[in-house]
Each structure stands twice: as C-alpha cells, then as structure tokens.
Amino acid sequence: MNGPLSVVTIVAALVLAAWYLLRSALNRAPSRLDLLASLVLSAVVAVLVVIAVVGLFDGSRPSDTATFAGYLITTIAFVPVAAYLARLEPTRWGSLILGVACLVIPVLVLRLQQIASVTGA
Amino acid sequence: MPEASTRPQDAALGTGLGRVLLLVYGVFALSASARALVQITTKFGEAPLAYLLSAFAGLVYISATVGLAIGGARGRMIALISCSIELIGVLAVGILTTADAGDFPDDTVWSHFGSGYGYVPLVLPFIGLWWIWRHRPRA
User: Fold this and answer.
1) Is B6 at the interface with chain A, CB within 8 A?
2) B57 three-class SS
3) For B79-133, what is each residue's pLDDT tens digit?
4) N or C: which end of chain A has fewer CB atoms below 10 A?
C-alpha cells in the first residue's frame, strides 16, 4: 500500500484536480478528453486497489479489515461514479464534480495507507 | 449568474451545482454512516452518545442526498429540513466539543466543527441551504 504506485496515484489525482478546477473556473464543461483522463485515473486506482486486495491474502492483514475493505470499495468506485455524474452535467459543474472527486482520491489513498499500517499481527 | 446561460432557472434541484452537492452529500452520507456502523458494532460501550450521534449525522446526510436526488417540492422540503438539522448539528456539536470534550470521548463527523474532515461539514450546510433557497418555487 506504500509503493510508488500510491505516490503516482496521489500526484496524478492532484494534477487532474487542479486541471478540472481550472476548467470549472473558466466555465468549461468536461471535454471528451477530460472524461477519458478520469477513466485513466480510475484504471490506475483500480490497479492500486487490486494490489491491496492481493496483499490481504499474504499474511499481514490490517487489524481493522472491515474498515479497510470498505475504503477499498469506496476508492475503486469513486472516480467512475463521479465521471458518470459529470457526463450527466455538461456544464462547468461537471468539471467541478471531477475536480472534487480528484481531491477526494488522495484522502482515500492516505486513509488506506494509515489503516494498512496498523496490522493486527 | 453563469449557469443561467446553460440551465433554466427552474431546472431540477439535482442539476448544475446541485449535482456537485449530490456527490459531496453522498460522500458524507457514506462516510458518516460507515463510520457509525463500525463504531457501534465494534466498541459501542466506549462512547455511546458520540456513536449514536455519528449514526444520526449519517441519517441526516442520507436524507439530504435523497432530497437533492428526487427534487421537486417534496425533495426540496426533505433537503431543506436535512440541511437545517445538519447546520444546527454541526454548530451545536462543534461548540460542545470545543468547550468540553466530556460527553464526546470519541470523534464524530461534526466534532470541532468538522475539523477532521477539512471543515467541509461546516461549510456544506451553508452551500446546501443557499442552493435550496435559490431554487425556491416562484409564485
């Protein structure tokens, strides 16, 4: 959970967040490319979550496995849900939805790291 | 108003900025209820009042999300009541936890005006109420 992929995810999410917030501030609706970028981010997050799930089966489980699993499900579903809402909202607010989602992802990843670091073993 | 150029004034409550609010309220509905569920199922005895409050906050966020989602006169009323309770809740719990942590040995979403959540719980009801007020039905 602490590998370079987490760092890549967080940085990518923050960069995208800045971009989407700028687009929203400039009164731009999300473009096809914007939505595509959010799907790429979703894919990176999905890989991260899969690695974390695999990690659950090789020994050191977080002491709070239920919470960890809940966060994993939220994390993997978050950007796709936001992208879906953003597609319904072809205005500046659609860009804001993507921006907010990209701001939440780093928080979720950091929380996952925090929970994972407390192992029951 | 910038969005007036793309959305009619009487557009549904859950469109435009309303859809952003829908997402944010959805996140808080999920996180507050999940937190309450974990707290109540694993360690209810430690701080029953704080955990019941967590659960209550979760319900308030869920009903605000539902109100925004269904829209119309009924959805607007549900969202209005939820956001008002939310505002009172975050202010009351914020003041209580800042003044005296005695009854709240463990944190809730609203503790210390939502400082654990970047003060979003404090700002959110104001934006919510403003949005609902802007969407009041015109005579």
Assistant:
1) yes
2) helix
3) 999 999 999 999 998 888 888 766 666 678 888 888 888 899 999 999 999 999 9
4) C
Question: Inter-chain contact A91–B7, Cβ cutoff 8 Å?
Answer: yes
Beta bridge partners of A119: A62
pLDDT in tens, B44-92: 888 888 889 889 999 999 999 999 999 888 999 999 999 999 999 999 9
Nearest chain A residue to B21, by CA: A97
- Residue A44 CA to residue A33 CA, distance in Å, equals 17
Query: Cβ–Cβ of B19/A27 closer than 8 Å?
Result: no
Q: Could A93 and B24 be called an inter-chain contact, meaning their C-beta atoms sit closer than 8 Å?
A: no
Cβ–Cβ under 8 Å, residues A82 and A98: yes
Task: Say if residues B110 and B94 touch (Cβ distance below 8 Å).
Answer: yes
Q: Residue A109 sits in which domain range?
A: 4-117
Per-domain residue ranges of chain B: 22-134
| Number of independent structural domains in chain A | 1
Tell me the angle at which helices A92-117 and A4-25 cross, rounded to the nearest 10 degrees: 160
Distances (CA, A) of A84 to A24, A87, B26, B31: 17, 5, 14, 20
Question: In chain B, which residues have their Cβ closer than 8 Å to the Cβ of A94?
Answer: 19
ipTM of the complex: 0.87
Cβ-nearest to B24 among A64, A90, A100: A100
| CA–CA dist A25, B55 (Å, integer) | 36
Task: Answer yes or no: do B20 and A104 touch at CB < 8 A.
Answer: no
Cβ-Cβ contacts under 8 Å, B23 against chain A: 81-82, 85, 97, 100-101
